[in-house]
Amino acid sequence: MPINDLNRLNKIYAAIQNKRIDAMRGRIKARVSAIKSGRAIPSRNDLAIGIGRRIEASIIFLDISGFTKRPSNTQFEQELNIRVLTLFFNEIIKIVEDYGGTVEKNTGDGIMAYFGPASGRGDTRQRAVACAMTIFHAGDNLINPIIVESGLDPLLFRVCADFGWITITRMGAAQRFNHIVAVGTPANRTAKMLGFAQGGQIMIGQAMLPGLPDDWCDTHVSLATFDTGWTLADGSPYGFWLFDGRWTPPDEVLDPQCPR
Hints:
Structural class: alpha+beta
Helix content: 25-40%
Order of helices and strands: HEHEEHEEHEHEE
Strand content: 15-25%
Oligomer: single chain
Radius of gyration: 19 Å
Number of strands: 8
Distance between the termini: 13 Å
């Protein structure tokens, strides 16, 4: 899918999204089990406990705003929330994977994912931001309409992204509980960025800017704050920036089975 055009979401991709969201909706109605948390690269089998692999990557955190305030006392309310989360995260995880990303964890009302170098896939920073825009497109145009149609409040969420060197490692107890985690300042900054971002926003760290096309930065990036608690190597403040670019839906959604 092209990621150098902020005016259009590719028609073929939009058709694939429509088809798989509709299929997931049908499976939810049939009471099929909920979403799995995803997988990581390198996989658990690639690493021994305490051994890591260092990569330069873009990291994103997605958090659903105010989800804990949604009614969830009765069995019926809890079941509705499970259905909403299943529909939402099933598609969001697929979008991350479509952009060459890896979901590290699902926190219940959010995810963390990272985008490492991939041959022929372009700068990880541009892929991460394009992924965030695609997530918002899916939420606004495909998923929330289904949720509202069901008589529930739409999901409001935020996506934060940063870039730098992280170490992917396997943590925990052997043969019992262990999982893959990303360790490093960029991951910490991205998590803390959620405290600055509001629902409906894409917020990016300063290290993301050099990887984005000039027209994206000129038109869609504005300073949120330099008061982040982090500094650059020269002691100057490290900024968090808002990115307001969005894909627009295609005029016509094509049948994904039809040739271009």
